[in-house]
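Posting for a labmate who doesn't have an account.
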Amino acid sequence: MRTAGLAYLVAFATAAATPAMAWAAAPVELTCPVGGEGFSFTPTASSLKFGERPDGKPLGPALLSPELPVCPGNQLVMFQSDFSADDKAALEKLIVDPGYRALPAGASYYRAAWLMRRLNRDPQEIAAMILQASWQADADPAAKRRYQAEYATLIEPLVSGKDDDLSMALAGRAANARRELGQFEAAGALLDALPLASLTILIPVEQRDGDVVTNQAEIDGARQKRALFSYLAGIKDLVAGRNAQSEPVAMLSAEIAAERCRDGATLSDDDRAACAARPAAGTPPTQPSP
């Protein structure tokens, strides 16, 4: 088990409509790094994934963010599998700190971020934990808003002035957090600073040596860039429309959008417009023009 982090920020699938099968969970035996308590932990599993929300949270039947193991006795959140001797000594003091003890018991991702800050972990990994904490707080709007604001505040200086794909993806997540908070001007400024045109590259034609595609890495890279462009352009459209919804139909996968559109009584005006603009069943999706 490694730190649960950046994979949740940059998984812009090139074929979001294709469900991904997940592995079956089996209990594992863990030992708490502080105190040595043994306990059984069953990782969260799911049968299908049908895309994700604009904030990156996976969507699908019973699909949740993988839960983090928590030591039953001292409540240490095990956000990684191995800790150094120095880490263990620091954690022994941190888990009895009143600040840690005051954090909600169900907020394992935010508790992990709290510990990671004090262990001087990578700020991007800390931000990833805080983003996932916001997913965990869907039922607590006030906590979710706090986590979203904290995430954006942490990420923005880390990506300012950078134009690599990861930085643009992180900026997009930060812009989405600002959007959901209703801070449309701040979200728009983040997106306007990104060189989106650099992502609209042509997907190369396959080059083959027999049955082997020799330029597959180049093809995959181009598809990832175009998927990132589609994501950022979608957020930009939501910001322009001052849409603060967490799960706007316009940004959902085809399967989930179709299901939401069938239940028209619960849709917002923005969602109804997005449903009306959806292509007919069987119509292939279009690629952004270079």
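Reply:
Got it, the structure tokens are right above this. The chain has ten helices and four strands.
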